[in-house]
């Protein structure tokens, strides 16, 4: 028995979505859409069912990532992350050597960075101490001026402004 197949135009009209949206959903959900000899997409009833479910959940406010997760959990879609990678012993040794070299380089860099940071902090401390000393000197200087002005104002019979502007 032959399966019913639909062109992208037929599916687009049936679902009332654009070709671009169909392409996007195909890529986003990793849908397996068959192609004819010319390379045109050929949709099956199963493909249309999945697309209708996507549109239904989307119309209810669900995000595409949420729909994808739901479909993977329910077995409607296959998990893309299930690819198996096989490494031989030589590859594992190379990996370990690279990791060790990277750790060594990072630790050397961090050691140099820590020494530089300690020097900057020490320089910063001495600058702060010098700044405090200058502030204290300024406070003392202005305090003496204030004290002399106050004495000058209080020690005379005439108002201070008359002394100043004879």
From TrEMBL:
<keyword id="KW-0805">Transcription regulation</keyword>
<keyword id="KW-0678">Repressor</keyword>
<dbReference type="InterPro" id="IPR047057">
    <property type="entry name" value="MerR_fam"/>
</dbReference>
<dbReference type="Pfam" id="PF13411">
    <property type="entry name" value="MerR_1"/>
</dbReference>
<keyword id="KW-0804">Transcription</keyword>
<keyword id="KW-0175">Coiled coil</keyword>
<dbReference type="InterPro" id="IPR009061">
    <property type="entry name" value="DNA-bd_dom_put_sf"/>
</dbReference>
<protein>
    <submittedName>
        <fullName>MerR family transcriptional regulator</fullName>
    </submittedName>
</protein>
<feature type="domain" description="HTH merR-type">
    <location>
        <begin position="5"/>
        <end position="73"/>
    </location>
</feature>
<dbReference type="GO" id="GO:0003700">
    <property type="term" value="F:DNA-binding transcription factor activity"/>
</dbReference>
<dbReference type="InterPro" id="IPR000551">
    <property type="entry name" value="MerR-type_HTH_dom"/>
</dbReference>
<dbReference type="GO" id="GO:0003677">
    <property type="term" value="F:DNA binding"/>
</dbReference>
<feature type="coiled-coil region">
    <location>
        <begin position="110"/>
        <end position="144"/>
    </location>
</feature>
<keyword id="KW-0238">DNA-binding</keyword>
